[in-house]
Amino acid sequence: MSKGRAALAEATARLVRAGIDNAAGDALALMAHALDVPRHALRDALSQPLPPETAARFQAAVEARLDRQPVSQIIGFREFWKHRFRVTRDTLDPRPETETLVASALELPWASLLDLGTGTGAILLSLLAERPGTRGLGVDLSDAALEVARGNAAALGVTADFRHSDWFSAVADRFDLIVSNPPYIAVEEMAGLSPEVRDWEPRAALTDEGDGLGAYRAIAAGAVTHLTPGGWLAVEIGPTQGAAVSALFAREEMQDIAIRRDLDGRDRVVLARREA
């Protein structure tokens, strides 16, 4: 049986040759997955020979990464905000920049929350976990994604409702806060995405097959009638969409429109408030 360290070095070299960013970090994550140990326990584990079944599991994971499958899909989860969320090919992979939306929402007053296009439920569940006693509904067009979100809620011990809905189509209630990370990539930009995103994540969660603003038009059109007086709307945007999305919200007579930047200094969130 080969030592884990040698297998790790060989896998890292293969990932580097394939042009994969963060090859060393990806190899470590895949090895921890194969060994079923946390990253901090890898040092001792790597000094030992790999059992055949572990070596086979690791090699299968490396081959999947060479096919450009995202690490989160291979290992089955993504760390986001303060929790671990299960991800599948049916859900958008929660990204660190989306934590800007969570942080922005936590600056606002709310006791009820609607998450449009909930996916894994990462935004909804992160927010509800921070505010015990609040209530939340996550909606999505994908039944497979809703199943993942329900499983994440159960795993975290967070109570939330989930419903199949095309934006507001199956939503009758009003909420203090509406959040969304909708598909905002223009169709002509899809070809330029990395294979990990373009080929492995659900296309409907990435693009509206148009100019990238279709979801914001639908959200803007329905927000006022689904917000309580004085309620807030907070959406993630692409870095160049701040002015366009702000204009859409202004047309619906939303107030206090503001843009928040992510940790890289890029426009990432647009906030707007319904008149009280």
Automatic annotation (TrEMBL):
Gene Ontology molecular-function annotations: nucleic acid binding; peptide chain release factor N(5)-glutamine methyltransferase activity
Keywords: Methyltransferase, S-adenosyl-L-methionine, Transferase
Positions of S-adenosyl-L-methionine binding: 117-121, 140, 167, 181
Entry keyword ATP-binding: no
Keyword Methyltransferase annotated: yes
GO-annotated biological processes: methylation
UniProt xrefs under HAMAP family: RF_methyltr_PrmC
Protein name (record): Release factor glutamine methyltransferase
